[in-house]
Design brief:
This protein is an alpha+beta fold and 363 residues long. It is built from 14 helices and 4 strands. It has 3 domains: 9-189 and 272-304, no CATH class; 196-267, no CATH class; 318-362, no CATH class. Strand 3 and strand 4 form a beta hairpin. The longest helix is centred in the C-terminal third of the chain and has 49 residues, at 269-317. The chain is elongated, with a radius of gyration of 29 Å. The two termini are 44 Å apart.
Length: 363
């Protein structure tokens, strides 16, 4: 077992693979919304997200139990990235995939109607924002990429310090991006991102109130934003067939407007696609930042910090190791290289002299 692992190297390797898979799944969820894939496909993706969140939540609880038994709970949270493990597991299960799964399969015909929403006094707009916050939170799964780097460092690395110091800027970039995205969820009304269906409201309300149902086709036929109109549970007008609606509209792909005795179903896929695009852009920024930091900053840190430190540490600990630190001329002013020069010029000559004295005594 790796001495930095709480679960063992084989399980860490499996978790690394699962993390990479869930990153693709998270992006796939947003892409499915943007490409307007079928409800069945999006349900499969949701079920997959729920399963992954449940697995990582169970893994986090297992780490808590094991580290607690070893009396290293504080070390796990502070030094071993337990906080990242937490944000990448339980909050996602409780605040994202769990509620969305409940809305999809257990909350009745209208997926956005939840008892908790009624208890909170949320109207239609509030329900939509409530769902949107749930779905925005799932971008936190990107934290698992930070976990992947940490796990990879545990499984295979020359330098113990590198995964932590490479993970820190990645964590900062990810946290800032997620904070901006969640803030956008609360501030979006100021930018007036609304479904196209809202443009119908000025015409829709007086027409539905004053006209007879048989005249609705004259005004609303062919409208992509108006799906259908019901009166006391019976459909009096529709622009979309029931089977097409069932196959293509998921949870909050639509919303309702009550006009007198009529319930009007309106399309909001356009605004959902906008949010999906925003989420994917943020996701791309985070992944690009992670890749650039990993490809550029990690080698720089290894070459100029970890490598020099490792050579000096080995030189202090091992009697017969007297290799000098290679000082980079262009970066000679770096404190690490100034320390390395002192190591090369002062410690190594003394060490060689000590070795010579010991050898002469042995003769």
């Amino acid at each position: 077992m790796n001495r930095y692992s709480y679960l063992g190297r084989a399980l860490e390797g499996l978790l690394f693979i699962l993390i990479i898979l869930v990153i693709f799944l998270t992006y796939g969820e947003e892409l499915a919304v943007y490409l307007n894939l079928s409800v069945a496909m999006r349900r499969y993706l949701l079920m997959g997200s729920f399963c992954f969140d449940a697995i990582f939540s169970a893994e986090f609880i297992a780490r808590i139990i094991i580290s607690g038994k070893r009396r290293k709970l504080g070390r796990y949270f502070i030094r071993e990235g337990g906080i990242i493990d937490f944000f990448a597991s339980l909050p996602l299960l409780v605040l994202s995939s769990g509620p969305l799964l409940f809305m999809t399969y257990l909350s009745g015909d209208n997926g956005v109607v939840l008892p908790v929403m009624g208890a909170l006094g949320l109207g239609a707009a509030g329900k939509i924002r409530f769902l949107k916050i749930f779905k925005t939170i799932r971008i936190i799964r990107v934290f698992r990429f930070v976990r992947a780097i940490k796990l990879f460092g545990k499984i295979k690395t020359r330098y113990v310090m590198t995964p932590r110091y490479v993970g820190a800027p990645i964590l900062i970039v990810t946290a800032i991006s997620i904070a901006v995205l969640i803030s956008f969820t609360y501030l979006e009304d100021r930018w007036n991102i609304q479904p196209r269906a809202e443009e119908l409201r000025a015409v829709l309300v007086p027409t539905v109130e004053l006209e007879e149902p048989e005249n609705f086709p004259l005004f609303f036929s062919g409208s992509r934003s108006l799906l259908f109109i019901e009166e006391e549970g019976e459909t009096v007008f529709r622009n979309i067939e029931p089977e097409v609606f069932d196959a293509g509209y998921f949870n909050d792909d639509y919303y309702t407007l009550q006009i007198g005795t009529y319930t009007v179903y309106l399309d909001r896929k356009d605004v959902k696609r906008t949010y999906a695009l925003i989420n994917m852009l943020v996701f791309d920024i985070i992944i690009a930042s992670i890749i650039l930091i990993t490809l550029l900053y990690r080698p720089f840190f290894n070459r100029h910090i970890a490598s020099a430190t490792s050579v000096m540490l080995r030189g202090f600990k091992t009697i017969d190791y007297s290799t000098p630190v290679r000082v980079q001329e262009k970066r000679r002013e770096f404190e690490i290289y100034q320390l390395a020069e002192q190591y090369n010029k002062k410690w190594l000559p003394i060490k060689r002299r000590i070795i010579e004295i010991k050898k002469s005594k042995e003769r």
